[in-house]
Each structure stands twice: as structure tokens, then as C-alpha cells.
Amino acid sequence: MTSIDGAQIKKIVVACDAGMGSSVLLTSQLKKSLKKYAVVVEHSAVNHIPADADLVLCQQQLVTRARTTVPDKVVLGFQMFLGDPVFAKVEKAIKDGGNLGD
Amino acid sequence: MTTTDTVEQESRGERLRASVQRFGGHLAGMVMPNIGAFIAWGLITALFIPSGWIPNATLNELVDPMKLYLLPLLIGYTGGRLVHGQRGAVAGAVATIGIVVGADIPMFLGAMIIGPLAAFLVKLFDKGVMHRVRSGFEMLVENFSLGIIAGAMAILGRLVIGPVVRTLTTGLGNGVQWLIDQHLLPIASVLIEPAKVLFLNNAINHGVLSPIGVAHASTDGKAIEFLMEPNPGPGFGILLACLMFGPRLMRASVPGAMVIQFLGGIHEIYFPYVLAKPRLILAAILGGAAGVLTFMLTDAGLTAPPSPGSIFAILAVTPKGGFVGVILGIVIAAAVSFAASAVLLGFGRGERQSLEDPQVEATRA
Q1: Lowest CB count within 10 Å: B76, B86, B118, B152, which one?
Q2: Which positions fall inside the PTS EIIC type-2 domain (chain B) (predicted)?
Q3: Is the residue at B108 inside a domain?
Q4: Is B243 on the interface with A (CB under 8 A)?
């Protein structure tokens, strides 16, 4: 169980199987919604998540793989690609501070 | 889920799925970065082969070398890079030339094996030996170790691995051809559609179907294998049914999802809807099978793998005169999966159960 304070998140990585499709889509959405905060959003393949990520987001089905790639990072899974409550939770934690844990 | 037994079982299932996904991810990871090259080859093929849009004998000469040499070499190179960076990539490419020379079919499968294998041997050597090399001799040892290992793998590939893989690839292709001849190919949807929603879509398509398809396309100018997984019809039908009959909470996000799935080609977007209502998998299977059956009966195929599986990408690699079958297959697949989903969703009557399950899942995560 790892956790991170929303205020300390500098880099979010969205991971998907190939790192080319759905993660890119979500990255551009998150970039828009997190524009006002000093947070970098990147996409990657779930087998190659960069080590400097503070928070990893991926579909629930891929969470186990993401955890094996980066065991010491906070990995949050989401169900839906559009309008999942997890994205709002992340934005709120970054805005107001507060703990995000898996 | 109260007893520890079931929890344990679940986590074992989870681990198994994760490792299958991981293996598939490696296969897809060798092909997907090179899709641009596949598209270049597919477009050149569609345009300039004798039965193409603007036949041209000079430009047609590009088709075979691209398919037989360029594409397998890129896959072997990328496979090597995944294992051991730039040195692995070079070793992978050199080893791959050993299996493509003399082959009359595109050796994708072989490249996926020998590329990473050669890179792995270089990695072993680097781990075991490089730290013992006297300073000043690093470059000499690095270059010659890579050259000798990769060269040996190329020889091994030409003499042993190549012939074995050729038999395997031909066998797989013949197996698919047999299924087509026996009109059994639609049964493949029983495997393809569930695997897709478990996020094995890239593994199935780029790891299995594309390599067989390229071999098939090189003899016939088109391959039905390229249509089996990327067909956006089944997913579109499911989304349409969710829009009309799905849980109210779900509906708001569906129109955006439809655009992203059908036009943008990112199929992943509909998987959660199926995972939230697992019985919809039946609709995906029926839609997929109906699509494959239509493609089979109309003798439809594509010249190159469409990636992403967008309607635009599919139409761009549809051969001249092949539009009717391709479009018909997509429409029929969408119609069948829509009808089946509508029935499975009880035409909206079971809507009260709403989206509760995934919500709970999401907060728990």
C-alpha cells in the first residue's frame, strides 16, 4: 500500500497496453483538466512506465501489470475511459491537497 | 468473496491474466511501433500492384522487398531493443536477416523469436563479461562481442531456426485457410471477442492475426485476418445499445465513446461497458462472428493491418473493388451486436441495477 499527497504530484503517467492508443487519449484529456496546476502528464506502455512518475493511472484490468512494473508507485485503476470518478478524485487531490493511496 | 480461498483464487487468476497480458504486450510491442511501415507497405501495395488503383511495374518492385525484408527486420530490431536497448536492437536486426534471406514468405513470427533471443544473448554477455574488461578495451570488446553473437545467430537462423519457423508459419496459415474452406472461421470470434475486452486486443491482433494475414495478403493481395479483430462493428453495436437501453449513469459518456471507438479506432473505450455488464460479451461474439461470416462470404479482405481499428483506417487499406464486402461486414456486425445487446439489456427494463458495481470497484481501487 503506497500513498502520495496530492500537492506533491509533479508527474502523472497514464499507462495502457501499447502506450499508443487509449493512454494518449486520456493524457490529452487530463492535460486539459490539469492545465492550471504544475503537473506533467505523460503516457506510456504499461510494461515501460518511467521511474520518475509520481502517480500512475491505468484501466483496472491492467493494474496488476502496472504494479509489477513500478511496485513503489501509487497506481490508481479506473473503470471507464470517460467520466470515471477517479479522474475527479485526482484533480481534487491536486487542487486541495489530500492523500491519494492505492 | 468472504473466504480467503476465493480471494486467493481470484488473485491467482489475476496474476495469470496479468502474465498472459504481459506476454501479449511484448508481442504487440514489437509490431505496434512499426505500424507506420506496415501502412506504407499497404498503401504502396494497394496502389501499384497489377490489380491496384494505378498499376506501375517500377513501383511494384518495392512491394516484395518491403514485405520480405524491411518489415521483419524492423520487428526483429524492435524486439531486440525491448530486451536490451540499442545493442539488443542491432543484434536483433542482424539475427533476423538470417531467417528472412531465402524465405519466400514474410518471417514475422521468426523475427519475433530470433530478435529478442539474440538481444538476450548479448545482454547475458554484457552482464557476465563487460565488468571484467580492462579499461581501454571496452569498445573493442563491445563491438566484437555484438558482431560475433549476432553473426552466429544469423547463421543459426539461416540454417536451423528459419526452416523451422517457415514450417510453423505455413502450418498456421494453412490452418486458417482450412477454417475458411470449411466455413468455420466465424468460430474464431468466440476466442477473439472475449480476449479483446480483457485487454488482449493488441496481443491477438498484432501478435497472431497480423503475421498470418501478411503471409496471406502476399499471395492474394488481401487478407481476411486483418479484418477479424479491428472490425469496429461489434463494439459500435454494443455502445449504441448502451446509449438506448443501458444504465442511465452510463449513457452520458456513450456518444463520446462511440466517436472515439468508430472514427478514432480506439476500441478499448467500449471494453469497460462490457466488463460492467459481462453478459454483453455474448453480443460481441455474435456480432464478431456475423461480421467474419459476411467477410468470408463476400471474399472481403484488407491489404494491410488497419491500426488503429478506425473506419477510416480500414477503408484506407481496402483493396479496389472490395468496399462492398468490408462495409457490409461492419454494418452487419454492428446490427447483430446491437440487437443482441438490446435483448441482453432487456430493452432498458433492467436499468435500475445501474452502474453500481463498477463505481464500487473504482472507489475500492
Answers
A1: B86
A2: 23-350
A3: no
A4: no
- To the nearest whole percent, how much of chain B has pLDDT over 70? 93
Catalytic residue among A9, A16, A26, A90: A16
Chain A contact present for B176, CB below 8 A: no
What are A75's strand-pairing partners?
A: A56
Closest residue to A18, CB basis, from B18, B29, B361: B29
Instruction: Return the ∠ at Cα B226 (arms to B221 and B228), rounded to 5°.
Output: 135
Q: To the nearest whole number, what is the mean pLDDT of chain B?
A: 85
Count CA within 13 A, CB hemisphere, residue B171.
Answer: 7
- Does B25 sit within 8 Å of A17, measured CB to CB? yes
Query: Domain segments of chain A: what residues?
Result: 3-83
Q: What is the ipTM of this complex?
A: 0.73
The residue type at A84:
D
Give residue B351's pLDDT: 54
Q: Which residues contact B200 (CB under 8 A, 6 or more apart)?
A: B20, B21, B24
pLDDT in tens, B192-202: 898 888 888 88
Q: Which string of DSSP letters, residue by residue, matches A88-102?
A: HHHHHHHHH--EEE-
| Number of domains making up chain B | 1
Statement: the pTM of the whole predicted model exceeds 0.90: no
Residue B300 sits in which domain range?
Answer: 193-365
Span B211-253, pLDDT tens digits: 888 878 877 788 999 999 999 999 999 999 999 988 777 787 8
Question: Is B160 contained in some domain?
Answer: no
Domain over A3-83 is classified CATH 3.40.50.2300:
yes
Q: What is the pLDDT of residue B365?
A: 36
Tell me if A64 and B17 make a contact (CB, 8 A cut-off): yes
| Coil, helix or strand at residue B319 | coil
The answer to whether residue B363 neighbours chain A at the CB level (below 8 Å) is yes
Per-window interface: A 21-40 vs B, CB < 8 A: 21-22, 25
Secondary structure letter of residue B158 according to DSSP: I
pLDDT per position as a tens digit, B355-364 = 444 444 444 3
In SS3 terms, B1-23 reads as CCCHHHHHHHHHHHHHHHHHHHH
